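Q: Given only this backbone (405 positions), what sequence would you predict?
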């Protein structure tokens, strides 16, 4: 008998009929002889409704109470799924995060899992029951309810799979798997049968929203095989697995686009040791994640610092930079919110030369100017004007995924 962790996202459990279909799938897996732990999200739109409700009551309410409010969405889904399983003749028991327990730190709204005590779930499975776990939530050492951030149910599922030694973690969603690009932008994008953890990590961090990046990091660290598949049919999806030698034969596995970008430039900063730390230290202390950074060549002892942040953090980041620029002796602050980051990812970049040159040739042929460049061993990202983002994705996919580099 194998243990399978199945995670169902918000669109998969959007209403009672869909929850009943999810229960039927879980029941079928159980009757095939597998132990099953099901992790469920809140119904589609429910988290947004709860956020709006809390803001209507008091916009600046405490983060602790915000977490208590939001976790009710997953609580409802977990209970309804267990009830639907019971109606289908399959014994089931629902668990909230604190009942497992899934222990986290105290960072409300973005908590990180510190440990999972799986004895209660193991006992439930030993009795022949399905364990239905509310995703996205945990409990801090002081007893406070916490949430793991948006997409946290993926992290819950993979963390449980690691803690329980599951054979597979299946992530059910509203798409058929991981594609070479967004099919809404690139009609010719095709589903990947297999993708390495490292490639999926890069794509998840670059705007591909199939998997939450923290869940992929968990899967890589603990060797959990992930199967991303549709909850609306029984077809095979995409396996996210350990790197295999054959994967390096593919030069570019995917093209991703992230339009949630803003660019800030602090002009005429003194080019001396410690200045960058004085700029980025306060930004980090504000909880803002900086992505790409470039520093111009020094001229007359001065340089420009340019970096990107999520658009949602743009106003806060600009306020921080405006406040500190006098302290570091900087000049004006320039900003641009009409930018996008386009990236290519592939293990084959390690062993194939000329991919970066080909990428820049393709963009130049389309008249697209590159504003910033960032690379890793298996990724190349560029910042461009937002209006060219979809054109760039299609051109790069045609040339580097469907064509030859």
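A: Predicted residues:
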């Amino acid at each position: 008998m194998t243990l399978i962790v199945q995670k169902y996202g918000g669109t998969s459990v959007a209403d009672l009929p869909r929850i009943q279909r999810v229960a039927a799938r879980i029941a079928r897996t159980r009757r095939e002889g597998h132990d099953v732990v099901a992790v469920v999200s809140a119904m589609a739109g429910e988290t947004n409704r709860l956020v709006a409700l809390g803001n209507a009551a008091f916009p600046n309410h405490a983060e602790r109470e915000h977490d208590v409010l939001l976790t009710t969405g997953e609580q409802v889904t977990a209970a309804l799924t267990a009830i639907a399983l019971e109606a289908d003749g399959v014994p089931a028991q629902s668990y909230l995060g604190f009942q497992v327990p899934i222990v986290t730190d105290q960072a409300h709204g973005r908590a990180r899992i510190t440990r999972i005590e799986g004895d209660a779930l193991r006992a439930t499975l030993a009795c022949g029951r399905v364990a239905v776990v509310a995703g996205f939530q945990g409990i801090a050492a002081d007893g406070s309810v916490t949430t793991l951030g948006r997409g946290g149910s993926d992290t819950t599922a993979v963390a449980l799979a690691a803690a329980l030694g599951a054979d597979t973690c299946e992530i059910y969603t509203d798409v058929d798997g991981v594609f070479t690009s967004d099919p809404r932008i690139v009609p010719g994008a095709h589903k990947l049968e297999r993708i390495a953890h490292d490639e999926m990590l890069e794509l998840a961090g670059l705007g591909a929203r199939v998997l939450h990046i923290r869940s992929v990091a968990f899967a890589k660290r603990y060797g959990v095989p992930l199967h991303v598949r549709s909850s609306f049919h029984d077809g095979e999806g995409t396996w996210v697995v350990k790197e295999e030698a054959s994967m390096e034969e593919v030069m570019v596995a995917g093209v991703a686009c992230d339009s949630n970008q803003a660019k800030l430039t602090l002009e005429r900063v003194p080019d001396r040791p410690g200045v960058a730390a004085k700029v980025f230290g306060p930004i980090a202390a504000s909880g803002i994640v900086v992505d790409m950074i470039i520093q111009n060549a020094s001229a007359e002892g001065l340089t420009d610092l340019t970096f990107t942040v999520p658009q949602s953090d743009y106003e806060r980041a600009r306020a921080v930079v405006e406040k500190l620029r006098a302290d570091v002796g900087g000049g004006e602050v320039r900003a641009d919110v009409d930018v996008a980051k386009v990236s290519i990812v592939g293990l084959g970049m390690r062993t194939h030369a000329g991919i970066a040159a080909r990428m820049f040739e393709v963009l130049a042929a389309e008249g697209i100017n590159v504003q910033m460049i960032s690379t890793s061993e298996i990724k190349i990202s560029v910042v461009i004007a937002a209006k060219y983002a979809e054109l760039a994705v299609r051109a790069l996919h045609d040339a580097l995924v469907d064509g030859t580099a």
